[in-house]
Give the backbone structure.
Amino acid sequence: MTVPIITARGIERSFLDMRVLRGVDLDVREGEFLTIVGRSGVGKSTLLAVLGTHDQAYGGSLSIAGRDVASLSPDELATLRREYLGFVFQDFHLLPNLTAMENVILPAVFSGADLAAARDQAAAVLDHLSVRDDSTPTAVLSRGERQRVAVARGLVNRPSVLIADEPSASLDEQSETVLFDLLDDLRLKQGFSLIAVVHSTSILERADRTLRLEDGVLHEEQ
């Protein structure tokens, strides 16, 4: 059995007096599609923020690619995040005055990666997703196209894990199906793991595993 790409043990997270995560244990296997479900406000986004190293005010232990996140310096953490993690946010977080290409290569710009290589990768992903790379997100692109730009940005550094927080929450059923068809295709070609918070039954049926977050603890769905 391969070593999990992400290992979390006893993850605790509180906000003021509210315990949101209560001893979460999780292994994310290489190449798997893992979905997380739970009622609104239960802490799914908080869990993704911890797994993605954006929220570091947690208790317990988290390792990515065999490295203990808590032991890393800020620069080492930034490098780990750049090399292993990609993100797709529910509200896209695109900059409206930038082209699709410029939005996609932002992670490479901020991380100091090779911009020429990032542009080549961005062009390839945008082409695969059928998005014009010379268009501005707000003025020209549809909502579905903006979602694809957000996906391309999450994949530009060829992450080992793509973390998606309700990426299809505001899409219609057909657009959601198209989005996850694309993600499945890219995941199989590139071999990354996909962790996604979703609600659609049809998408849950695609997953290798589904975990339910309830009362701060993860339970595997049967």
Notes: The mean pLDDT is 89. Strands lie at 6-15, 18-28, 33-37, 59-64, 67-68, 85-88, 161-165, 193-197, 209-214, 217-220.
